[in-house]
Amino acid sequence: MRVSLRNLAELGAGALLIALGAIGLALSHDLPMRSGPRLGPGAMPLGMSVLVVLFGLALLVRGLLVAGPPPTGWRVRPALALTAAILGFALAVEQAGLVPACILLLVAAVAARPGIRWIEAAIYVPALTALTVLVFKYLLKQPLALWGA
After folding, report:
1. Burial tier of 30 (Cβ tally within 10 Å: 0-12, 13-18, 19+)
2. Which residues constitute the domain of residue 41?
């Protein structure tokens, strides 16, 4: 049986997700799953890792079955901008606070896209920042400073 690589982008994304999920599984396997009648600290990382692996498998299968566009050149700007966005958030969230870190992350992510529409960014950067604050600070009650440490 000959396997056809019909969609390289989805095959690559699937393989990456499977690898990341496997790392998560390996790192969380020593954590306790239950603590009495409650879920332990290892339940969430394990569950999320399993979901990441399953999504990766779905992308991998889809990449084998569904034809995609032919491979194009690799763009440096999006990769650098997204890497900078993630690193900037990680470095800024504790010192600058959640709100500035989210704004930095989202503006850098917008810059990754060719043909930037700053008017759209002016709408969704504050909206996503507010949603992030609502979810992490108020619903999940994470001990994150909103502004500065």
Report:
1. exposed
2. 8-65
